[in-house]
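Weekly structure sync - notes
Attendees: PM, LS, DV (DV joined late)
Agenda: review two folding runs queued last week.

Item 1: First target. Sequence and structure tokens pasted below for the record.
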Amino acid sequence: MRKVLPRTFFERDSVIVARELLGKFLVRRFPDREIVSMITEVEVYDGLRDKASHASRGKTLRNTPMFGPAGRWYVYFTYGMHWMLNIVTREEGYPAAILIRGIEDAKGPARLTKKLIIDRQFNALPAVKKTNLWIEDRGVKILPAKIKKSARIGVSYAGPYWARRALRFFI
């Protein structure tokens, strides 16, 4: 079974979507090949109140995709050297996205985007085959007991409450 995740999959509560993304497959198509790798780690950034979210200061040119329709990519540059890949969730107008932190053969969001050659060209594009970057369900089921959660990584600037929230999920 190979099914591209539809927009409706992402138009739900971000925590539910994040947990269900574990075991799904990120697919990056190139002219001569495809790279397919299982998603193993994600982090949720949800709403204007989430002080670790780019949306906490309101809508800006950079974070505009977070406010758009679900199922689109939010790709941004950080530390002057790394691209980060996020998928937008929830209803349009509500800023939420899930950072894809790891796949089975690339641990860490910067390694993931380097391996898959992902940059700003994908920002705000839908996660569909036509854009050469999408997520598939291939029938892998991750048992709830295998899913771990913890605080997000590198968000101490958001203050103790937001820094300690268990919004990172991994296998």
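Item 2: Second target, run right after the first with the same settings.
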Amino acid sequence: MAGLNGKFALVVQALRHLGKEAVGPHEIETVRAALTPAEKHKLVRDTRYGVEWIYKVANRIAEKTA
């Protein structure tokens, strides 16, 4: 989580707390609704070199952003 701040640190911390197996469509949609398109892209960029499953979840959160 080094280098993350604000909302992004909270999102990553929440994902870690829930754990890989507990993050499903409901959780992804909740985060998706809370972030702007720019924030979603920043989340993906900021998690790229972290834990792989969190990066994959970040991509799923940003998927429907156009």
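Discussion on item 2: Residues 6-62 form one domain.
Action: LS to circulate a short write-up before next sync.
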